[in-house]
Amino acid sequence: MSVNATSKFDNLRQKYDFLFVIYYRGHWCPFCMAYLRVLQDLSPTITAAGGCPVIVSAQDEEHLAEVRSSSGYTGEAINDPENTLAKRLAADGIIAVAITEWQGYPHGLAQPAILVIKKDGSVMETWAIMNLGGAKDRPDLHQVWENINAKLNDKQPSYARFSNQRELDDLA
Where in this chain does the record put each Alkyl hydroperoxide reductase subunit C/ Thiol specific antioxidant domain (predicted)? Predict the structure, then answer.
């Protein structure tokens, strides 16, 4: 299945002007589900700009229906239980998604991360969690999207630094 993760990622990248990728821990993480709800809210504007929201997890695909139910997220999803995509992205110098040992994840748990990458492979934004115990230490997705939208329109981004996701406490 994970060999397909890299192929699916490559196919999506060629199909859209850019991918707005969110790595999440799993269906059991309320902060991840809250983050995916925000991504779902932003999805129409991302799609209108020629992009594709994509969620990625090291969870088996059997949990995807619960993720969709819990978060309301309806877009593209990549399940990568062997973390093949995360390993390739790190090897290519694109983003280093943290992989930690975790019960129920034989090849490790991919930690939260953001990657916005264009069709041509140029990276517009990356962020990967550094505080592995800090589930709420994620950039505000609205601010990330504002910066990406500015860059797409050849404007100066509004945020040099993102605040933490403000909705997590309310949505989790």
Answer: 17-124
